[in-house]
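Fold sample X.
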Amino acid sequence: MISEEIRARIAQLEAEAEQRAQAEAGRSSHAADDDPWQRLFDAPWASSAGLENDDFSLNGWLAEGLAGLRAYLRGAGLNDEFWLHMRGAERELLLAARALIDARLELVEARGRKAEQASRLQEIEIDF
């Protein structure tokens, strides 16, 4: 190939990559409405726009990293079975969080019952 053919091929590949990126952006903009993870990443608390240059936002940093990981994994050509397992793992993680919350609620309620019982006890003076 001569240099002009190489340049033409590079331009063609760049144009194809741009078309794929635009098509993916179009799909992801529709998917953002249905994807709770995307809504999570677009949440105001995850934005570092209101921070000063030196401020660090842990939530923003984590959200940015997770969004990048998801984008990388989507582009890696992983099959549907992988994503099925990922959805299952997400469900299990949420169930684990529910179990933690339920255990904490039981503890709080038990403390409340003890406090109620203690407040009902009164000292009664009896004269003989």
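Fold sample Y, listed below.
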Amino acid sequence: MTDDLSFTLEEGKESMTKAINHLEAELVKIRAGKANPAMLDGIVVDYYGNPTQINQVGNISAMDARTISIQPWEKNMLQPIERAIIAANIGINPQNDGNIIRLFLPPLTEERRREMVKRSNGEGEQAKVAVRSIRREAIEQIKKLQKDGLSEDQAKDAETEIQEMTDRFISLVEKHLAAKEKEIMSV
């Protein structure tokens, strides 16, 4: 196997792994009935004119199964954090007592649970599309290598390997989605 071919296969595997890692990060943000500080990942607070991740302006923790607390390191950051959470539209209203912000998660209704499952399935579909486009790009690269002198047998073997890799990563996406759906739908 040529260096270019092994590089193409390795690059494809790396990219597919990144797609799975992205899916895992997105699924963590989807609420599954219990409080998880990772739900606030991606929320940006205006910290003295600089957009800053919410977890860098205060301590975020899950007090119990239904409550997340945010203790800012500076008291004057309470309002900006509160505004950022409201603007993020995550379906939770912050409660500010002057020292700490609490987020009380309401129990999920059946309808809301189904909505969450749809959202996680959408994330899964994006991951599948990403994996398939990585496969397509790798196969195009193999075809270019074949034009440059790679034997037909090596090209076919490499395409088969890429397809098997794609199938493994697609089934991994399915496993993640099934686990998330089970987590969301369990009361």
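Sample Y note: The chain has a mean pLDDT of 86.
Also: DSSP finds four helices and six strands in the chain.
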